[in-house]
Amino acid sequence: MTAAADYRVYVEPLAAHLGGGFVAYAPELNGCLADGNSPSEALAAVYDAIDCWIEGANETGRVIPAPKYVTMKLSA
Predict the structure, then answer these.
(1) For residue 69, what is the DSSP state?
(2) What is the pTM of this model?
(3) What percent of the chain has pLDDT over 90?
(4) CA distance 13 to 34
(5) What b/e sequence results for 18-33 when a residue is b if at least 16 CB atoms lie within 10 Å of its CB, and e otherwise?
């Protein structure tokens, strides 16, 4: 099973005329994005959005793309 943290995510500032704050998005999951007042808030929100995107895809039979980039997971 694919986890939200397996997908590449970008966090970028939003222009003031777009409301300010930050937007985070997962480009491999079409339309999967979230925003927040800080980068960490936007990042937390997009991971929740990724979980919801995957859940919705499972419920509707949509194909869930495999993450294109594998990141190394560090153990504690």
Answers:
(1) S
(2) 0.84
(3) 78
(4) 12
(5) eeeebbbbbebbeebb
